[in-house]
Amino acid sequence: MKKGILIACIACSMASFGQKEMSLEECIATGLEQNYSIRIVRNQERIADNNVTPGNAGYLPTLGVEAGYGGNVYDNKYDYTNGTKASVNGVSNATADVGLNMNWTVFDGFGIQADYAKLKELKQMGALNTRLTIEAFISSLSSEYYNQIRQTTRLKNLRSSLDLSRERLRIVEERYTIGSMSRLDLQQAKVDFNADSSKYITQLEVVHTSRVRLRELMGLDEPDAEVGVRDTSITLNVALEKEQLWNSAVTSNTSLLIVQKNKKLSEQEYRKVKSVNYPYLRMNAGYGYTDNTYGSGTTERQQRLGLNYGVTLGYTLFDGMNRKREQKNARIEIENDQLRIKEMELALRADMSNSWMAYRNNLNLWTLEKENLVAAMENYSIAIDRYKLGDLSGIELREAQNSLIEAEERQSIAEYNTKLCEISLLQISGTIIKVAFPQGEELGESKNTN
Hints:
alpha+beta, Outer membrane efflux proteins (OEP), two-stranded parallel ribbon, 11 helices
């Protein structure tokens, strides 16, 4: 066994940890600027913002200029009542015109007002979609940030276990040399050392994968860039209150706000549909020049320059019962949106209940596992002392070592799962952005440059 080569490889792998370290806040701030999903949804929000104009709603008239030229060439034949006949061949007429035209819908039964109000609601919907994407991003990135802490901690624990196995192997080799231990003890110590080495090398890959995933979430173009987490432990918030979280969810949960906004959009659509119940008033005006050239007749050329205008007042008396159908469907859609709001509230209650139960349960497990870890460490300390005195077998020492590793792993898992539940509760309550940035920066809002 080439222990020197293995130890050198492990040392090289540990050297890769010398890298730029970032806090959770720095990782989130970087991701908010560079994450592609956030940049896309922010552009979509800007589009919705740009659409909120009186012209897009139909308040303003349309004005255009047109020019045209056309004509015809034909042969004329005449049969007169006195019996004579005549014909004229190659008669050419031409018309050239240019004009400025304006069309304006002055009133359409409040449909324009409904469209403008709908555009404003869509702008707010764009902001909510951006906020929802940012909350999901913060949740995912925070989870991966703490996962990297957990996996790095596990790597350190496995390294410690490997050091313990190496020390045990050294002791066995020395005793085997002087004949106080059998070859079976030596081979078992080597097997255990190789097993711990394998676990450690496998964990290196897990840590690397987590690191790459974190950089991917931040939107860094170089997935192999040397960037790591600054924190070395997970700090839990043990002071969360269920009632306070729920009260916040009712007023701030983004998914709930979105379905509520959808109801307002449906209400504006109903106003739009109802506009056909009213008459409409339209105006048009134009100013232009027309030049007609005639190839026959008494007039050779006619020119016109002037203003034309008109007003149209109308009302749709019957449209095949479509008006009634559309209004009925619009009312049903509003009812469906109200049901979706109730459904979302019920889903939030279920998610809150499950997440809170998991949070409290994992918090209790974490407390228990911390006590177990202290006991396992003391147990191993006693075991290694007895083993050095020759009062404990290698198998019993290995059991104590495995108990220590398992206690560290259970404590780490309970700690990480508690943090995930905490993140989930903050996301449900709609406060995850404020908690991630307690300094009060409104990072959840897009920064429009228009």
